[in-house]
Amino acid sequence: MPSRRSISARLRNLRSEIERHLQLYHVEDAPEISDAEFDELYRELERLEAEHPELVGADSPTHRVGQPPAEGFATVAHRVPMLSLDNVTDAAGLRAFEERVRRTLDRDDPIAFLSEPKLDGAGVELVYEDGALRLGATRGDGRAGEDVSANLKHLMTVPLALRDAPPGRVSVRGEVVFPLANFKRLNRARAARGKDPFVNPRNAAAGALRQLHDIDIARLRGLEFRAYQVAEGVPTEITTQTEVVELLARWGFATSQNTVRCSDIDAAIAAHDALGKLRDSLPVEIDGSVVKVDELVLQRDLGELSRSPRWAIAVKFPPQQRTTIVEGISTSVGRTGALTPVAKLRPVFVGGVTVSNASLHNQDEIERKDVRVGDTVVIQRAGDVIPQVVAVVKSKRKKGARKWRLPKSCPACGSRAVRAEGEAVTRCVNLDCPAQLKNNLRHLASRGALDVDGLGEKLIDQLVEREVVKRLSNLFEFEADTIEGLDRMGRKSAENLVAALDRARSTTLPRFLIALGIREVGSTVAGLLARRFGDLDPLLDADAETLEAIEGIGPGIAQTVVNFFADPRNRSEVARLRELGVRWEGAEPRASSEGDAFEGKTFVLTGTLPAMARSEAQRRIEALGGKVTSSVSKKTSYVVAGDSPGSKLRKAEELDVVVLGPAEFESLLRDLG
């Protein structure tokens, strides 16, 4: 049985890897692994966190929806969050989803679903006021996205005005996709101009929406918007998801073909299987189907988790596979110093994309699959750019093929490479490694850290490559004369950057902690540390036991923070930053909770509440210190029974548990609020 220490180390490694892949996918548009491979990592993290809730960190990626909006665009808050979808890969997973739905709703009768293609594109929101398009935004992190209205207006399938528009505000959600015929035409035109082709339609679509300069109008007009949801402004007479799709078509939107209403879960499974047979003949890329509870009132009752709705699920298609040759294995160095082996493949066309690279992740993975240069390997792609090496065809291995190992020194700077006990990742120990430094500088300059205006990627590349900056603190040492004359850096630009750096010296303790680039320390953990210690000096010498005592910080994060400040080079860098004028005021005191009127009380919800969604009822209970569970027992304090309650009400009556009707429950909340 694995030890607590090894489980903690595995969780720490999983969180770090998942965060890195989220950044590559959502922000840098340069994913290294397939969707299927990412899902495997994510499901392992969910499973381990469920088995060991005491080790769940406040900054775990399971609390995330997506990634923050990119710099350069105005930020738009989504009034209704744009959540991710949980996913399954087979009929058994879909049946388990239906069972969760029935259990949550406390229903025994069949539930109708809507099955639609899972489009492989970029999610966006269109906002209309009195029928006129006012705003178009990317999904971003699900809570806020980027205002890309100007680019979206070039899409011929984005209506500038709705037909038969209702009054007031309407929010329409959908996917921007690149039809395959248009995508191939675009790449032929790029090749004719001597430009590299785009590797797949999804990244080409997402990148087109985020163009700030030199807008490629032809590329934008090759895109299509397919609508699938009305988040705000659903007319009262619309009661099902099927009617929502019909409404969107009446308003003038393109919707997906092969959308099918299913009377029960068996019909939804059949619809998914039928769609899989049509996959290769469709005009756009899809990577599965989406199954949604059809009745809108049931969607409302089911509510949402922190990152996904309970009423919808994605059903992924099996990955497509091909074989090719490993022509070489190289090593890349990431922001945290992680050394990642990358297989250089003989180019192969798989799943609509020509692939020439695949991440091998770490030394354990190479040894497990026994990948060697010259091997014939099976590649699979699940809707991503760089796919997964599934297995080696050992019957085709040439004699003399040698095992491959990660280098003992960093290929970027030559420093020692070390693999810590309990971790799968090998890292460069040199904090000033150029490969890490560029990424650390971008991190320091980001809006969540010191927010240095004007310190962009190309300038950072120059500062590091010309050795103007050799470590983070060097940023606050140079003057305008030092950088004037760099590419695109005149006197005025240099002075503006120095002024921005001067403004960045005045910050907060949480932002400073984020800027240091400590692994697993994001905004939530930084805030917890700042509120607990009030200033940096007490934190510098805190031990792991003290940090673990902070609610929301697990042993993995605690040890990472302790290790960071125990390194004399890191402490020296922190001291140098303070000498150069980086400063902050004390942390704000911890905010008090909303109350504890329900402390120790357990609630069970059943039936439909007429005045609020089930998720809102749960939030209100938890805000007052209570707990919501799914089953009734003798320890249950209250059962809240709405319209059409199920077996939970009968169980409550048998056990003599107090039952509250909707009016009584709402009155209780008002009295306590």
Question: What's the layout of helices and strands?
Answer:
Layout: H1 4-27, H2 35-51, E1 75-77, E2 87-88, H3 91-105, E3 113-119, E4 122-129, E5 132-138, E6 144-146, H4 149-152, E7 169-177, H5 180-192, H6 201-209, H7 217-221, E8 224-232, H8 241-251, E9 260-262, H9 265-278, E10 286-293, H10 296-302, E11 312-316, E12 320-333, E13 338-350, E14 353-359, H11 363-369, E15 376-381, E16 388-392, E17 417-419, E18 426-428, H12 434-445, H13 457-465, H14 480-483, H15 491-504, E19 506-508, H16 509-515, H17 523-533, H18 536-540, H19 544-548, H20 555-566, H21 568-579, E20 583-585, E21 602-606, H22 614-623, E22 627-629, E23 638-641, H23 647-655, E24 658-660, H24 662-672
Question: Would you give an account of this structure?
Answer:
The chain is α+β, with helices and mostly antiparallel strands and 673 residues long. The protein folds into 5 domains: 4-64 and 319-396, OB fold (Dihydrolipoamide Acetyltransferase, E2P) (Beta Barrel), CATH 2.40.50.140; 75-316, 2-Layer Sandwich (D-amino Acid Aminotransferase, Chain A, domain 1), CATH 3.30.470; 434-504, 5' to 3' exonuclease, C-terminal subdomain (DNA polymerase, domain 1, Orthogonal Bundle), CATH 1.10.150; 508-585, DNA polymerase, domain 1 (Orthogonal Bundle); 602-672, BRCT domain (Rossmann fold, 3-Layer(aba) Sandwich). Strands 12, 13, 14, 15, 16, 17 and 18 form a 7-stranded antiparallel β-sheet that branches. A 5-stranded mixed β-sheet has the order 2-11-10-3-9. A 4-stranded antiparallel β-sheet has the order 5-4-7-8. β12 and β13 (338-350) form a beta hairpin. α12 (434-445) packs antiparallel against α13. It is globular, with a radius of gyration of 27 Å. The two termini are 47 Å apart.
